């Protein structure tokens, strides 16, 4: 309990710091959302509307910075992240909510598949070190060094343009009406297969190499030798003793990967014209849509924190020594 309380206090402080920085950062930048919105409308806004916009964006000149900060927290606790002027003053929560499922569904699923396959293959290759299984490592490492955009372009050229197996872009076919039907879901799966495979192939090598190296280290530990001396089945020694301890460092990397899922793979989403959060963040930056950028940064930051909390919990469950040291 002491371990979890310590971690909870640490992450609550980190969340407060992230939210506070997220409040002050746009106000320290040159310009403000209202000025950018006026410039985008070429001055077709009355002075009364300008004052209303400043109140809408929490930049009321009649309020002190502290009052704006308190108001920001009040709106945040009510789930109000402001208005996106590049999206017709639509609520930021609605804009992010429309793009978030696409990124989580694509990048999240691809990351989990890559982690599971890479960790399993790395454990087996490390267990059979010195055998022909080691030949997988150079090929996997090579693919992990290829940039996302280059691999995506190659995948489009081969599997979309030449072979015609998969669509080259977008999340679903043009003219299709989004609906929870088998036809639309199948269309989404077909469009998402190529970018998902690109992410899996590009990130698989890192998981394999990391797990293999940790397995080689763990196999020299005494508890593995004792387990083998007891005559336990090889599969049990591999997965319950060696792999369970070797995958602990993998969990930290996996937690960070899960956290950055919300940020999306910006380059991949651009290459495949995928309507995810990464592309939305780039569009918001190009349009200088400060409220939308602020909302996206906040969601990404909090997601990384939640992912790290889950990693700490999993780490403590798998390795009791962590709880003892923290306690």
TrEMBL record:
InterPro entries: MetI-like (IPR000515), MetI-like_sf (IPR035906). Coiled coil: none annotated. GO terms for cellular component: plasma membrane. Gene3D superfamilies: MetI-like (1.10.3720.10). One of its GO terms (biological process) is transmembrane transport. It is a multi-pass membrane protein. Residues 100-311 form the ABC transmembrane type-1 domain. The chain crosses the membrane at residues 7-25, 102-127, 148-168, 188-209, 254-275, 295-318. The keyword rRNA processing does not apply. Keywords: Membrane, Transmembrane, Transmembrane helix, Transport. It is found in: Cell membrane; Membrane. Belongs to the binding-protein-dependent transport system permease family. This is ABC transporter permease.
């Amino acid at each position: 309990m002491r371990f979890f309380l310590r971690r909870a206090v640490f992450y609550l402080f980190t969340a407060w710091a992230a939210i506070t920085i997220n409040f002050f950062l746009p106000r320290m930048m040159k310009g403000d959302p209202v000025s950018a919105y006026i410039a985008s409308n070429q001055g077709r806004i009355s002075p009364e509307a300008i004052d209303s916009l400043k109140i809408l964006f929490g930049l009321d000149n009649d309020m002190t910075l502290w009052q704006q900060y308190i108001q920001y927290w009040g709106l945040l606790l009510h789930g109000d992240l402001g208005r996106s002027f590049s999206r017709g003053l639509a609520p930021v929560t609605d804009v992010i909510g429309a793009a978030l499922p696409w990124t989580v569904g694509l990048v999240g699923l691809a990351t989990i598949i890559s982690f599971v396959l890479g960790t399993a293959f790395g454990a087996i290759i490390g267990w059979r070190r010195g055998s022909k299984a080691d030949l997988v490592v150079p090929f996997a490492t090579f693919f992990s060094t290829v940039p996302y955009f280059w691999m995506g372009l190659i995948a489009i050229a081969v599997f979309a343009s030449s072979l015609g197996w998969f669509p080259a872009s977008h999340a679903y076919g043009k003219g299709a009406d989004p609906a929870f039907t088998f036809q639309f879901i199948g269309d989404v799966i077909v469009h998402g297969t190529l970018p998902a495979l690109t992410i899996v192939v590009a990130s698989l090598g890192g998981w394999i190499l990391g797990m293999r190296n940790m397995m080689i280290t763990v196999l020299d530990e005494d508890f593995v030798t004792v387990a083998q001396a007891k005559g336990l089945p090889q599969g049990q020694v591999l997965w319950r003793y060696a792999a369970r301890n070797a995958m602990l460092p993998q969990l930290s990397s996996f937690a960070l990967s899960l956290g950055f899922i919300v940020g999306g793979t910006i380059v991949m989403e651009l290459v495949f014209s995928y309507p995810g959060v990464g592309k939305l963040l780039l569009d918001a930056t190009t349009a200088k849509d400060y409220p939308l950028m602020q909302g996206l940064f906040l969601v990404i930051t909090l997601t990384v924190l939640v992912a790290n909390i889950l990693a700490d919990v999993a780490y403590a469950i798998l390795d009791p020594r962590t709880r003892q040291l923290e306690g």
